[in-house]
TrkA-N domain protein (Candidatus Defluviicoccus seviourii), 585 residues
Amino acid sequence: MGSGGQRVTFIVLRFMRGPLLVLTAVYAVSMLGWAMIPGAATDDGTEPPLSLFHAFYFLAYTATTTGFGELPHPFTEAQRMWATASLYAGVIAWLYAIGAIVRLVQNPHFQSVLAERRFTGAVLRLPGSFVIVCGFGNTGSLLTRGLSDAGIDTVILDRDPDRIAAVMLRDYRVATPALCADARIPDHLIGAGLMRPNCRAIVALTSEEEVNVKVAIAARLLNPAVQVITQATRPEFVEILTTFGPDVRVIDPFQTFARYLGTAVHGPVIHMLNEWLVGAPQANLAMYPEVPQGRWIICGFGRMGRCLRDAFAALGIRTVVIDPTISETEAKAPDMVRGRANQTTLQQAGIEHAAGIVAGTNSDPENLGIVLNARAVNPDIFLVVRQNRYRNQVLFNAAAADLIMQPNLVSARRIHLLLIAPQLRTFFRHVRGYQLRGEREALDAIVTLLHDRIGTAVPRLWTVVLDAGRARSAVELLQRGLPVTLGDILRDPSDRSGTLACAALVLRSGAEVVAVPPEQRRLAEGDEILFCGSVSAHRLLDATLNNPYTLRFLVTGADRPRGTVMRWLMARSRRHTRRSSAACQ
C-alpha cells in the first residue's frame, strides 16, 4: 500500500498503452501527410504544405469539434481529401481511447487501488492519536461510535464492502477512514497506520478468531509499542495471545458477558455505576433495580450459558439450567432440565419460587418467547433477557424485561473503557472490595459524591498527566515548591468556594495507585489522575492547569495583576507603602 501512486500509474499505463499508441500513430501519420501534401499556390508561385504546428493545430481543433475552418489558407482538393481521412481516423482512435478509459474506471482492481490511495492519505492526515479497528461488525460499530463520541479518531479495516459503505453513511464526530481489505495482510495494517507513532491501539474484532490472532501477531511484530486488544474464545488461541505480554489484551465475549451479568445480579449498585460511567441511556445513579436473592434459571447452555453458570456459582448463586442440547448424563443432575424453555420445563425448573430467569440463547425470537412464558407462570419474577441483534431493539423494549443485555454492547463498552480509561479497573476493584466486605455506607458515599458533583450531565472520562506538555502551569508551581492539592485544581475559577462538576476516580503517583483519592492529597509532577465529570468541567480543568494566573488564584486565593502596567502600579504601591511605614517608625 505504500506504493499506491506507482500502482495507479502502472494500471493506467497498462490499460491505456494501446489507445495511446494508436492516437500517437494516427496523429503522427496525419501530420506527416499534411507536411508533404502541397498547399494552395501563393503570389510567388510556390505551393507550400502546412507546417507541423499548423497541422497539429488543425487536428486539435477538429478533434474537439470546434471547427475554425481551413487555416491558415484555404485547402486544395488533395488537402481536403487528406483532412477527411485524418478526421475519420482520429474519430476512430478517440472512440477506442474513450472506451479504454471507461473500462479502466470500471475496473474493480483500479477502484481498489484508488480507494487504498485515498485511505492511506486520509490516515496520514490524522492529526492526533487514533485506534485501528479490524472488523466492523456489531461490536466494531458500537466501539467506533463510542470512540467517536470520546473524540478519538478511528481507522477501520473490514472485508465486507457493505460494511465499509455503511461507515461512510455514519455521522461520526471525528475522521474515520475505512478500507475494504483483509486485515491479515501486513501491508494493509501498515497502510492503516500501524507503524505511525500516533497509533494508540489496534483492536481485532472480526468474526474469525484465526484472523484476530494473525492481526495480533502481526501488530506485535511490526510495532511492539502499540496496545493490542483482540477477541478470542478458543483456548488454543487464548494461550498463544497471553504469551505476548500485558500489552495484548484478550477479550472473551462470553466470559465478559457472564461477569457483567453476574455483577448486575449480585451487585446492582456497581452495575448501575458501570452503566452510568459508559453513558448508557437511562442510567441513573439515584435509581437502580433491586435484584431479588435466591435461585436463578438459565435458559440456554451453549458457551455463553456455561460461562453464566460458572459466574453465578462463583458468586454463590444457585442455578437451574434449561436447554434441549443437554446430554442424557447431564440431564440426570437435579439442576438440569432437558428441553426447550416453555411453560412445562419452566415449571419443572421451579419457576414459581425462583428469584430470576435469564433468557440467554443465541436466538432473539426464542428469548422473547421465554420472557412471555416466564411472565405467564410467575408475573413477579426478575427477567433478564439477552438481545443478540441491535435491530430488534424495539421488540425488546416492548417486552419490558428488568434487564436487557447485549453481548456485543458489553464487549464494546469494556474495550472502550480499556482504551480511554485503563485505570478504571482500579476504581471498580476498589468499589467491589466495599461490596465484598459489606461496607455499604462507603459504597453509597462514592455514588453520592458522583451524583452530587455531576448530577444529570452525561459523564465523561479523561486522564490528566501532570507534565510540562499537558499541565504546564501546575508543573511550574510544583517546581517552585508551592503545594498544590487535588482540591485546589478542582475549584471553580468563577467561584473559588465552589467545585467543578467532576471527581477524581484514580490517582497514580509513581508506584502508588489510590482509588477515589481525598481532595487534601498533595499532587506531584508526573501524577496521572483519572477524572469523571461533565464536558464543561473537562474544558475548565484543562484551562486551569495551563493558566498560571487562574491556578495561582485557586491555590493561594490571591488574584495577581496580569498586565504589565498593572504589575508596575502594584509594585510601585508596595514600595510606597514600605517607605511610608519606614518614615512612621
